[in-house]
Amino acid sequence: MYTYDYPRPMLTADCLVINSSNEILLVRRGREPFKNSWALPGGFMEMDETLEHCAIRELQEETGLLIDERSIHLIGVFSCVDRDPRGRTVTAAYSCTVDNDTNALAGDDACEVHWWPISALPPLAFDHREIVQTFLESQHNIILHTSL
Fold first, then answer.
1. How much is the pLDDT for 147?
2. pLDDT means per 10 residues in the chain (148 residues)?
3. 50, 71, 79, 127: most buried by Cβ count inside 10 Å?
4. Sign of the CA dihedral with 94 first, then 26, 124, and 90 last
5. What amino acid positions are annotated as catalytic residues?
6. CA-to-CA distance for 90 and 12, rounded, in angstroms?
7. Whole-model pTM?
8. CA 100, CA 28: separation in Å to the nearest integer?
């Protein structure tokens, strides 16, 4: 196995799940950083998976939802240098739509899940507000007010 002398960033995938009532599924983080803060479901990519599979796996582990790979769509790649206090981390954010009656249950490192109206999102961990804003702008040209 060849190794490079250069530092490498960590890779994560996040999943923005929205229902037909325009509610976004968030998880309350059970661990640091941002313990007890709300966030999009997501986490670190494993060596034997794609970013898409990472997003699907993390969504299932944290919320119990199982999404088909054809159902997720790339929102964008987010690489701000200080986006994660654990170190240099780049994330690929994906979106998917589910029915209103979809039941989600907290699991893995999520201690709670909740559907939030787009207009009433709580403060979000990491740069997840920017991810939500990017998604909304691409879908509906909606701007989230920073006071939310």
1. 46
2. 83 96 95 96 97 97 94 97 95 94 86 94 97 89 51
3. 127
4. negative
5. 112
6. 6
7. 0.89
8. 20
Phi-psi region of 136 (alpha: psi -120 to 50; beta: other; left: phi over 0): alpha
- Beta carbons within 8 Å of 108's beta carbon, 6+ residues apart: 58, 61, 62
What DSSP letter does each residue of 48-73 carry, written as one string? TS-HHHHHHHHHHHHH-----GGG-E
Residue 37 burial class via C-beta count within 10 angstroms: exposed 0-12, middle 13-18, buried 19 and up: middle
Three-state DSSP at 129 gives helix
Residue 16: count of CB within 10 angstroms of its CB: 26
Domains of the chain: 10-140 (3.90.79.10)
Query: In this structure, what token pair is assigned to residue 59?
Result: 């969504």
- CA 102, distance to chain mean position in Å, is 18
- Cα-only R_g, the chain: 15
- Strand, coil or helix: what is 93? strand
CA distance 22 to 104: 16
Distance between CA atoms of residues 51 and 142, nearest Å: 27
What is the structure's pLDDT at 1?
64
What pLDDT sits at residue 145? 54
